[in-house]
């Protein structure tokens, strides 16, 4: 069934209640339709809006008496005003209110300067789920500042006086929209209308004259279908924080590279544990390198989406390998009889790679399948924060942090009971101090920095937001330093290997110098011998 079929064979005196019942049938069509793409959604919704407005307006215009009519259903509220005897004063205003939404319109805008006229004000209760923020394009918006993360934050309403499309009103119409969600200071509302031509939201001819955290009042020079679009104000970059980010990432990349080479080439320490460290270092190195070079490359959009997807995968893989590290340490300590790593063999390597690289791939594939537009934003090549898509990242790493925290608490509890019996030659104080240090460092590796990142929302005001941002950045970008220091520099076998490498490298120049010196001496002696022989012959 088509939407227009619902209104066919209706007479001119149809009641507003009958109109509302017909709209109920349309609403069912909208809800039950199998929409193949965004264009079909937009076309069907546009047809829906036109039919509703036209039917409500004609019902009001054909009323025999002057006055206000109202009908409320679960899916729509309609309020109409019919004028038969002209305006009482030149500046007479009318307020039409559905539930919480309202429209203030001048009498002259309704009558058009004549004696009669009608206006319909309609509030929808489900259309915003179809015409959501995915129909927002910056090409259709007039912006005087940088905005990002657009999201509908009101019900959708329509107003009509029978005026043709794009006709301007001499007196602007004001709409009051309660917000569906509370907003912070970093959010800015945009008064938008549904553009039938571009099939998207536009703010041309509309602007906000008042707004706070709970409502927005819009002033528009034309009538159409309207809503509130909430956007995040893009704050100016902190130069100090930017320097810390780039310097920290560069240092982290260097340390991760050195750590990976150490785990790969230092034979005395090669075991399951160092294999886990190696893959963690590789994932973090690639993630930080891609972040440093591609996070701001938003054009072309396809490449930006790919960058965001790869970043999502690499960071998830990093956390997965961190989880495997925690699991390996827990299994090792639980089965310890003496202080060694012989129980590492229990940790099967054939399970490491499917888990370490397979699970993140599955999460990213499912996320991309559910919401293909979730990767890439107008400002950064990262996960889109709208529609809860960020949960595809926050969810898995929260689980990793929680599980590994449990692993470490149990590990420390076991070590406390067994430490004295495991190695009586080692001072208990020194051992406990070292274990505590490594546990804290490992906890950072398991995502303490991202715990701080969870609080970086618009609900956190300054100066706490800046403090959290600095702490998050400093800790996060220096993860490579933690890995290199804790797993390499604090390892005696690694330090001994470094010393051997340095000695080997330092011996090469000395050997070359000795060979060159010996060659020169031999040539000099040979030359003198030939000179003496020549003199003897003479």
Automatic annotation (TrEMBL):
This is Adhesion G protein-coupled receptor E3-like isoform X1. Residues 79-236 form the GAIN-B domain. Keywords: Cell membrane, Disulfide bond, EGF-like domain, G-protein coupled receptor, Glycoprotein, Membrane, Receptor, Signal, Transducer, Transmembrane, Transmembrane helix. It is a multi-pass membrane protein. It comes from the Eukaryota. The chain crosses the membrane at residues 243-266, 278-295, 310-331, 351-370, 390-415, 435-456, 468-490. One of its GO terms (biological process) is adenylate cyclase-activating G protein-coupled receptor signaling pathway. It is found in: Cell membrane. The keyword Cell membrane applies. Residues 241-491 form the G-protein coupled receptors family 2 profile domain. GO terms for molecular function: G protein-coupled receptor activity. The keyword Transmembrane helix applies. Its main location: membrane. The chain holds residues 163 to 700 of 700 of the full protein. GO terms for cellular component: plasma membrane.
């Amino acid at each position: 069934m088509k939407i227009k079929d619902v209104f066919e064979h209706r007479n001119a005196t149809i009641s507003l209640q009958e109109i509302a019942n017909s709209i109920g049938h349309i609403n069912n069509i909208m809800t039950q339709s199998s929409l193949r793409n965004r264009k079909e959604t937009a076309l069907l919704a546009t047809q829906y809006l036109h039919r509703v407005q036209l039917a409500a307006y004609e019902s009001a215009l054909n009323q025999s008496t002057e006055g206000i009519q109202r009908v409320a259903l679960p899916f729509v509220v309609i309020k109409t005003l019919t004028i038969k005897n002209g305006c009482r004063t030149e500046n007479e205003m009318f307020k039409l209110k559905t539930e919480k939404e309202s429209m203030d319109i001048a009498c002259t805008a309704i009558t058009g300067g004549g004696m009669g006229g009608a206006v319909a004000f309609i509030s929808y209760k489900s259309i915003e789920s179809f015409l959501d923020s995915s129909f927002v394009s910056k090409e259709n918006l007039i912006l005087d500042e940088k905005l990002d993360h657009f999201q509908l934050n009101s019900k959708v309403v329509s107003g009509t006086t029978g005026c043709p499309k794009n006709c301007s009103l001499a007196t602007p119409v004001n709409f009051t929209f309660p917000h569906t969600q509370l907003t912070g200071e970093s959010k800015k509302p945009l008064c938008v209308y549904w553009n039938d031509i571009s099939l998207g939201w536009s703010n041309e001819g509309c602007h906000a004259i008042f707004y706070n955290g709970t409502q927005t009042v819009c002033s528009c020079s034309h009538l159409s279908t309207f809503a509130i679009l909430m956007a995040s104000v893009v704050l100016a970059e902190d130069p100090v924080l930017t320097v810390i980010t780039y310097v920290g990432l560069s240092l982290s990349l260097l340390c991760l590279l050195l750590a990976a080479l150490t785990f790969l080439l230092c034979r005395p320490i090669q075991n399951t544990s160092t294999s886990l460290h190696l893959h963690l270092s590789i994932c973090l190195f690639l993630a930080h390198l891609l972040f440093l070079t591609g996070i701001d490359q938003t054009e072309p959009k396809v490449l930006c989406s790919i960058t965001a997807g790869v970043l999502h995968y690499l960071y998830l893989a990093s956390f997965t390998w961190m989880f495997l590290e925690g699991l390996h340490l827990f299994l090792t300590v639980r089965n310890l009889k003496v202080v060694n790593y012989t129980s590492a063999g229990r940790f099967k390597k054939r399970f490491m790679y499917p888990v370490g690289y397979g699970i993140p791939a599955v999460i990213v594939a499912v996320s991309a399948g559910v919401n293909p537009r979730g990767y890439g934003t107008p400002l950064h090549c990262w996960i889109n924060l709208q529609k809860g898509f960020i949960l595809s990242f926050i969810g898995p790493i929260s689980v990793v942090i929680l599980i590994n925290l449990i692993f470490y608490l149990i590990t420390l509890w076991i070590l406390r009971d067994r430490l004295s019996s495991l190695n009586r030659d080692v001072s208990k104080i020194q051992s406990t101090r070292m274990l505590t240090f490594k546990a804290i460092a490992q906890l950072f590796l398991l995502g303490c920095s991202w715990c701080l990142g969870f609080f970086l929302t618009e609900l956190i005001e300054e100066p706490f937001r800046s403090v959290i941002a600095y702490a998050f950045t400093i800790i996060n970008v220096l993860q490579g330093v933690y890995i290199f220091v804790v797993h390499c520099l604090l390892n005696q076998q690694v330090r001994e290997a470094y010393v051997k490498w340095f000695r080997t490298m330092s011996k090469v120049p000395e050997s070359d110098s000795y060979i060159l010196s010996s060659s020169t001496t031999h040539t000099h002696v040979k030359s003198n011998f030939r000179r003496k022989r020549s003199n003897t012959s003479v």
